[in-house]
Amino acid sequence: MAIEEIQQEIISEFSIFEDWMDKYSYLIEMGNDLTPISEDKKTEQNIIRGCQSQVWIDAEYNNGVVTYQGDSDALIVKGLVALMLRVVNSQTPEAIMNTDFHFIDKIGLKEHLSPTRSNGLLAMIKQIKLYAVAFNKIANG
Predict the structure, then answer these.
(1) How confident is the model at residue 36 (pLDDT cuts 50, 70, 90)?
(2) Structural domains for the chain
(3) Which of 48, 51, 88, 96 is labelled catalytic?
């Protein structure tokens, strides 16, 4: 599925909920469904700077697509990791690099996150894109 389709799917899912407590519960549920990153990937190199809680993101490049893994020690943040990885997993580096992640504004996430969580989300996006840039250089020699 293309990144734009995934973003539209997320917007549609979040539109079902009227109350932000329900949206937070959904985020936590998504985090609980996230496949945990292996302990050997919870390294200093994979930690996301700028997050109040601990967040790790790792990526691999195989067969033209990027596969991300992530985790956090905080429930809502783990949900944010799951949400972000859902959008970018199994996509090409170029597609990830060109994504604007407009679903974040459309579902109202930005205005409902604390400043530290917003900073952490921006740091996550930056790291996801940095992996894509690195893999794009590998792919294009």
Answers:
(1) confident
(2) 3-139 (3.90.1010.10)
(3) 51
